[in-house]
């Protein structure tokens, strides 16, 4: 796609997301409507907004959409919009303002447009491939080289007893070791907000333990467009199939990789033993 195509598509996407502002704000506090797992659910507003935006995006751009709630075409190939109608659903349902809508355009798995709309806060972030990042009507400067000790770090959610790819005990050890360098760690409960604020320089870094494209693609695009570095937690370049995200300003990213190297491999952690060992250190 040409730059003109991307600019035009981004403008269309911005208009459509702006059109959902009133409904998003009015629906805040909506209860669970669909249980998706023991710790996950969707509200009726999630479903309504996804249906609406999928229809409008496909009609106005002739590009298919993959949404969190209803799925869609593969995100690894072809040209496809990826949509999370409400990122931070728990926050949204309980009335916290840290929730928003995430939209990205992927071409063969690479995000080339990223948009993060935070209606309850009244902020909009967007960028096309190559930057810059825009916050509302302002083009933001590229991220400067920074230090971890002076940075706020957005941190993903965890349960100490959880198992899986990135066990809870591993996540707690990451939290513990980062806190030895930066005491400014925040858990906002919204991947999109964390990554957008990293792209804008409000946060120095974001650590994301999730792997879904609808959570990560828009924010990864924004951080890259803003001059930040985006990898997985092992330091490999982030792709739409990556199982985690480490997004940070230059300098902060390198320091965090050093901390993560000291934590060790996630597979070596049990739900309790390594976390207890870390607390005793």
TrEMBL record:
It comes from Rhodococcoides corynebacterioides. The lineage of its organism: Bacteria, Bacillati, Actinomycetota, Actinomycetes, Mycobacteriales. It is an enzyme of class 3 (hydrolase). Gene3D superfamilies: 3.40.190.80, Fructose-1,6-Bisphosphatase, subunit A, domain 1 (3.30.540.10). This is Myo-inositol-1(Or 4)-monophosphatase. GO terms for molecular function: inositol monophosphate phosphatase activity. CDD domains: IMPase_like. Keywords: Hydrolase, Magnesium, Metal-binding. It comes from the Bacteria. Its EC number is 3.1.3.25.
């Amino acid at each position: 796609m040409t730059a003109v195509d991307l600019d035009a598509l981004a403008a269309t996407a911005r208009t459509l997301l702006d059109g959902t502002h009133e409904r998003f704000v009015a629906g805040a506090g909506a209860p669970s409507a669909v249980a998706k797992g023991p710790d996950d659910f969707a509200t009726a507003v999630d479903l309504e907004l996804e249906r609406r935006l999928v229809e409008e995006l496909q009609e106005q751009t002739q590009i298919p959409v993959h949404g969190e709630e209803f799925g869609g075409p593969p995100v690894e190939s072809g040209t496809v919009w990826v949509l999370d109608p409400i990122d931070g659903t728990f926050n949204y349902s309980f009335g916290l303002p840290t929730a928003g809508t995430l939209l990205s355009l992927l071409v063969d798995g690479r995000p080339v447009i990223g948009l993060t709309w935070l209606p309850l806060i009244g902020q909009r972030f967007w960028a096309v491939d190559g930057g810059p990042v825009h916050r509302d009507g302002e083009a933001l400067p590229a991220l400067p080289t920074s230090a971890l000790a002076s940075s706020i770090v957005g941190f993903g959610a965890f349960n100490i007893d959880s198992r899986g790819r990135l066990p809870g005990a591993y996540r707690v050890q990451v939290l513990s070791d980062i806190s030895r360098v930066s005491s400014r760690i925040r858990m906002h409960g919204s991947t999109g907000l964390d990554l957008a604020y990293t792209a804008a320089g409000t946060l120095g870094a974001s650590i994301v333990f999730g792997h879904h494209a609808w959570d990560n693609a828009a924010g990864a695009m924004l951080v890259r467009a803003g001059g930040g570095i985006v990898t997985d937690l092992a330091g490999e370049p982030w792709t739409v199939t990556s199982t985690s995200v480490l997004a940070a300003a230059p300098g902060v990213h390198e320091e965090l990789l050093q901390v993560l190297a000291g934590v060790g491999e996630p597979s070596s952690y049990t739900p309790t033993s390594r976390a207890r060992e870390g607390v005793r250190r």
